[in-house]
Amino acid sequence: MVHLKDFAQEGLPRLLEVDNRLILPIKTDIRIITTSTDVIHA
């Protein structure tokens, strides 16, 4: 979890920052598998 105090110090956008960044290939189908324990807020 990224703590709120870290955002204030670094000036990072709070809702766009993640714990582990991911680099994905372009022009490739990406499948995201979620379970009932996952929560997606849109």
Automatic annotation (TrEMBL):
Name this polypeptide is given: Cytochrome oxidase subunit II copper A binding domain-containing protein
GO molecular function: copper ion binding; cytochrome-c oxidase activity
Pfam families (alphabetical): COX2
Residues spanning the membrane: none
One GO cellular component, as annotated: membrane
Residue span(s) of domain Cytochrome oxidase subunit II copper A binding: 1-42
